[in-house]
Records
---
Amino acid sequence: MTTPTTTLKLMSTMALRSVLNEVIPDFEKQAGVTVEISYGATAKLTERIRSGARGDIVIAVAGSINELEAEGILQQGARLDLVTSEVAMAVKQGAPVPDISTQEAFIATLRASRSFVFSKQGASGMYFASLLKRLGIDEELRPKATVLAEGLTGELVARGEIELAVQQMSELMQVSGINIFAKLPPAVQQSTTFSIGIFKDPTKAEVINAFNAFMRTPAVAAVYKRQGLDPITPVKG
């Protein structure tokens, strides 16, 4: 008689999709489990969870994990930080590369652009919307802006529909046919921490602990770096 395979249900932000697609098969072999993954923008994931969606673990922006812990949905104090990510910009492969080396150059490039796109519910898109307001250029640039409900902004640029794409570096790297020419300059940059959260009263504590340890191994850290993410070094006690 065959022993049923344990299934680990994972909800994850799009920012780590390429990483998970690459490393999960290794974890499944090592742990003898099956991992079911559902992806979404952080705001969408948080909304789904608050509406009753459940899994075993979730990977999302650290702030969202904190909120869900405080609301009693996730285990309090169990947050595990994995990586940090920065926002970048891309143009279609072969197109001229604009200058965004300073805040002034960044603003000038947006003003001179034909169009740009950012996400509505991803961490980068929500930050970018707030950034435009902070800089006082949101109303001026609104006619040029496309706000993508969800998905990869780089795909619109690769198809030639939009001139500039804005998103997390790791998400832009999931799209072929574009040139990720620079990260936003320091004055307007935001570094986002992505973390693991654990749903309350898990029945698969051993598998969850194994997954958490696996996601902090040097082999997975190398994948993070290759996919445009900066691994957070575990604190040595």
---
Amino acid sequence: MLSVDAIDLHYGAAQALRRVSITAEAGKVTCVMGRNGVGKTSLMRAIIGHQPISAGRIGLDELDISTLRSEDRARAGIAYVPQGREVFPLLTVKENLETGFAPLKRRDRYVPAELFDLFPVLQSMLGRRGGDLSGGQQQQLAIARALVTRPRLLVLDEPTEGIQPSIIKDIGRAIAYLRSKGDMAIVLVEQYFDFARELADTMFVMDRGEVVLAGAMDELDPGQVQRLIQV
């Protein structure tokens, strides 16, 4: 579903990505790992259209999205859960979820009941402001907000960062459920190897703006992956 082919990305004169290629398929979790500062978030920003690429191609199915604006990529079926969650603190949980209506046709502008099965705590907090939620609850809200858009590609940038273990398990179960439906490709940026290994079908490890190791999770050497991502 997603094809990133030999992309470069620059911030001014500084090159953040060098000929990076990854793929993500429907019904599978593609995990991107690496130390801090190696280009993982830059890759996500390139995929969702927040930062233009300077070479290469990004495709979604047969559509070349390399130059599409981020809002047009959202309409094409890409949803993003940013690092740090970025919920709207003064909006209620219900209003935060409804911001996901923006790329949808009018007939689809409702919050699927399935989201409250995935994250039951949100249903009991619909009237509470986003800024009053705990970090874990905000992360669940950020994921649910992305899912409101009915994405074909879900991009998650370090969803376990700063989250308590019980909610990490809830997030893991939600990702596993979404994968099992078979109609969504999931790209997961993660720091915790055990969490990633449990969910990933395919893994790409980055270092200094490049992919230095890639393959099916069950074919990679866990020790080699851990050595590459150790700080």
---
Amino acid sequence: MVKTDLDILDDMIMGSAKVDIEHKSGSNKASVTLKEPQFPKSEVTIYGLPHNAIVIKVDTFKSPDTILTEKRGQRKRSDYIIVANKNDKKNILHIEIKATKGSEKDIIKQLKGSVCFVGYCKEIAKEFWHEKKFLSEFESRFVSITRTGSINKRQTRLGKEHNPNDTPEHMMKLSYPHKPQFNMLVGA
């Protein structure tokens, strides 16, 4: 049996670093609730995930404090990534969650750190699974979800410039999230 990139990633990542997806019975759609690590009451639920999605708490990956300096933010990483193949569209969604607004410069560094984490996973697949093209067909998308502590108080606001959200510097900015859809976040 040939393993897909998602199968390999699922084997590679420990269960404790993954977030359980809630499957809606009788449907091919699912949702996931993501929490801001420093503020457990601050959370957002993303709807419309495919069942085969893998959600990884990137912050679980221990910071390389003992080997890297923090001069340019290279020890930072975002809170989550969602890796999914939906309707033959393959995406890696990098997500940073903030209970308040947060600094854009810091959020960019955190999103870049999650790109490095994915690069590390690619190298592991290349060297240990002999998969030279691991995740090469997946497109990265970047989202900053802020003001998650006020979910019910305001309508979801989308930053003015969010397309394309294919680099950390051009991330989609979502404030006061209310039922964000996976397709919207990846620009589908």
